[in-house]
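User: Last request for today: this protein with magnesium ion, please.
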Amino acid sequence: MFHRSASARATSRSVPTNILTRSMSNAPSIDSMFDLLPVGAYRTSVDGRILRANAALVRMHGYATEEELLQGANVRRERLYADPKRRDEFVALMLAEGRVINFVSAAFRRNTREPMWVSENAHVVYDDNGEVLYLEGTVEDITERMANERVVAESERRFRALTERAQLATVIMTDEGVVLYASPGVEALFGVPPEAFVGQSVFDSMHEDDRAEHRAELRNVTQKTNSGRESIARHLHADGTYRYLASLGKDCSDDPAVGGIVLNWRDVTESTVARRRLVELAQTDALTGLNNRAHFEHICEARLLDARGSGQRFAMLFLDLNRFKLVNDAHGHTVGDAVLRHVADRLRRAVRPEHTLARLGGDEFALLIPIVDAADAADAAQHLLREFVDPVPARGMSFDVGVSIGFAVFPDDAGTFHKLLAHADLAMFTAKARGVSSVERFAPQMAERVRHQLSVATDLRFASQRKELFAVYQPIVNLLTGGWQGVEALARWQHPTRGLLMPGDFIATAEEQRVIGRLGRDIAQQAVAQVGEWSARFDVPMRLSINVSVHQLRDPEFVAFVLRQLELHSVPPRRLYIEVTESVLVDADDIAVQTLNAFRTANVRVVLDDLGAGYSSLAYIKRLHVDVVKIDRSFIEGLPTRRTDTAIVRALTTLARSLGIEIIAEGIEKEPQAEFLREDGVRYGQGFLFERPMPAAEITTRLASGSVQVTAESTGLR
Ligand code: C2E
Ligand code: MG
Ligand code: MG
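Assistant: Here's the final one, the structure of the complex with magnesium ion:
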């Protein structure tokens, strides 16, 4: 602490006004100088104990003697700094720079605890070895100076306030508002000379919408029932713009010197416009100009509250775009924003004045509409759907975004705003699951489904611990020889009360609830260990495929974890295949792509699963350098007869082949399908026709019986 370099030490020690350091001879002149200093002076140890204080400092703190001050400061520990943080800042500065200059802080006189302001100058004093001897410094009481500065600042503020209000005008008028006298200030506020004002009504220049209120206000003034507060109205200036003028009236008709009502005006246009703008900003969504969520809530609460007495029913419509994310990901936020603005415009055009429309955030919109019965809501929703039949243009492109709408009825489905919105949201989810633009009304089972999901999520957190998760294995076979090329690990969950659950029952929930990471590691660990065991025991070069979701790819530890498992169980990385779905690739951010690249660098292969089921952008295949594609089951199903399916499969295989990518066909259930694929040159397949997913023990039996052949052919196969 306070240890300094030689050069820094030299500067500090060369400070000539080393006022507190006694000379070798203890010359009294220095001591008396110290005591005679008009400012306070002190010396402290590094930990803040005061060692010496001069007469001025003693006085400043309200003590009679130095001993009393030392007693107060060191023994009773009377605090100096009003804000203890300021003491920390003082120490930090001393540490960093070895001194402080004009360090101003709010302080207390130690004895009397009176507040004061001080300015300190202090530095560290070192011995010849660079060790800290003590700190010394001066303290100046600047309380009075600070007070003066404050007075100046205050008068400056007052002056500013006055000049800002300089746009003032006064008129004297009849109790009908006819002007009898106008002050020169009128010219600045209205752009007409005061003479021209006389004889006119003050209501002539007033905005039509403000007149009724201000006529009433004038009546209050004449009847002396007004609040005495200013009221604001818009007045037309000669330049054609409206100004906001605040006015205060006083009835002086009884005063013969005045003989009328005195009205003082001041121009508050700037502050009023600014305030209105703020309110507007706080209530609207900046991107679309629609109501924002908070304001929407505010309006709806009020409308629902009114409705409680009247029996009026409402429908809450929840709208969500089906393919917005895709637009955003593929074309960027600028295009995404343009799409949202356009969507907002269409909605604005489609709604009626009695509807309340809002953007809740992202691609979610909501609409509160008064209805007679639920059929009205369904009609309104269908009407909105039709608005989105045509693609949405943006930046020279056009997008078929599609909408899903869910609605809930007040008070039938929910009695509060929050419940109503939540139920409409649930209904929207159900609509969205259909995959096409559609409308759905809330039903209580929907909430049940979500509750179920939540309970699955809770159970999932313990599933790993309780060893309820395990993998089954489906062989991937050579379509020509029937031999096994490898296996795909598929997750299963032996739930304590619900029985055996399939991935469809829990993977999506695990992803949503962010427990997929644990689950995935669990399965990967088991599968790698298992394949390692089979490879060693039966001496087979078996490939292993594991399915990985985008959340797992975002886990920076995931690659290391998997590689460690491979090493632990002596499985060469080139035997491992990471399967990702197209939807994963759509969501893939840079981190996910980096993870996939890290796998590739380690010689692990990447498989694009369910090709064609999702968005099928060839750009993804390129961006991710996949080694293998799996053609989705839905195309295999229609083989060999359905024309579109045969065409698509042929196109996909041709493309993959030209890119040097291996192909696996999945979901082969019938021999003619296999036949078509063989003829098309597809070498590998998976499906119930060959093998179903099996528990590990069953695969072990098969391998042990020697009835299957495992051949790890090179990945260059097509
Ligand atoms: P996937 O990776 O496309 O797996 C193939 C699915 O098709 C499996 O369903 C499999 O049992 C089924 N299948 C195989 N052959 C046939 C057939 O001939 N006909 C029919 N109709 N189906 C067949 P499963 O086991 O229900 O898995 C469903 C999906 O869940 C998987 O699709 C995969 O995307 C996901 N999944 C499975 N295990 C995991 C895992 O450990 N982690 C992650 N993230 N996802 C997993
Ligand atoms: Mg798969
Ligand atoms: Mg698949």
